[in-house]
Design goal:
Blueprint lengths: L3 H5 L2 E6 L4 H13 L5 E4 L7 H7 L3 H5 L2 E3 L2 H4 L5 E5 L10 E2 L1 H13 L4 E5 L8 H4 L4 E3 L12 H17 L17 H17 L9 H14 L3 H21 L4
Bound molecules: S-adenosyl-L-homocysteine.
């Protein structure tokens, strides 16, 4: 039988461009109280830092083990499912979940053996659209409209608590696997989107229009599909053939 602590290891908390090291420490404490230890920091303004250690209040193992990365793609390496936490509805048009709904989906994914990321934004600016676009769904803590933004570490606490409750829940049926092949991870999806963009360019799909909006829509479509590695290989093959035909049509070899 899988226990809460086995499943906890399937989760990581990713803090993006955090300004205040104190918030990193408080977030580490919030995670640790709920049994989560994996923290990934993307371009933190200051880390390591005394203030982070002070506010971690003993959750030093979380800080010591925290990965530091330049970009979100690296912070998501090896993850199969990512939830972006945001106080505001953004222009990205992702499915929006409550923390409870996200926790239930995250649990099901963890039980299938997948790695799940919870992604949190900068204190002032939150997550950028580009960053949210790398997530499968957005999670909004249902705060009041006119004062919607929680302190970063308190948002981490709410999400960690919901996950903890879900992990402790009894009689959760083990979901059937979505795939018989390994699910694609974030890095494979990134290479896929690069190939897709290049192929659309090569077949002159954009015809002078800016590719940004269509690429965001395609991201949403393909993220939703939660593809496995074999499906990715098949699409890479199709794109490569389309590129070959485009070269032939242009009279290149
Ligand atoms: N003005 C920013 C607030 C940033 S607060 C914004 O609108 O997004 C720092 C981070 O805490 C956010 O990026 C988000 O990850 C998390 N957070 C704060 N309040 C939240 C809420 N109500 N729902 C979901 N996440 C929230």
């Amino acid at each position: 039988m899988t226990t809460a602590s086995d499943l906890s290891s399937h989760f990581r908390f990713v803090l993006v461009r955090t300004s205040h090291p104190g918030n990193i420490g408080s977030a580490a404490r919030a995670m640790r109280t709920m049994g989560f230890t994996r923290m990934e920091l993307v371009s933190p303004h200051r880390f390591p830092d005394r203030e982070a250690s002070a506010l971690a209040a003993g959750a030093d193992d979380v800080l010591d083990g925290a990965g530091v990365h330049q970009g979100l793609i690296e912070g998501l390496a090896g993850s199969n499912l990512a939830f972006g936490l945001s106080a505001r509805r953004r222009g990205v048009n992702l499915p929006e979940l409550t923390p409870h709904e996200a926790a239930m989906q995250a649990m099901a994914a963890a039980q299938r053996g997948e790695q799940v990321a919870l992604v949190f934004g900068n204190e002032r600016t939150g997550l950028e659209n580009e960053e949210l676009a790398r997530c499968h769904a957005m999670v909004r803590i249902p705060s009041v409209e006119d004062f919607s933004s929680l302190n970063l570490s308190q948002a981490v606490q709410v999400m960690a608590y919901e996950l903890r409750v879900a992990l402790l829940g009894e009689n959760i049926p083990t979901p059937p696997p979505l795939h018989d092949e390994p699910p694609a991870d974030a890095a494979q999806m990134e290479r896929f989107f690069e190939h897709l963009a290049q192929m659309l360019d090569d077949i002159d799909f954009h015809k002078g229009r800016a590719p940004t909006t269509i690429m965001l829509r395609l991201r949403k479509l393909f993220q939703r599909a939660q593809m496995d590695e074999r499906e990715l290989r098949m699409l890479h093959g199709i794109f490569a053939d389309a590129q070959r035909m485009a070269r032939l049509a242009k009279g290149e070899k």
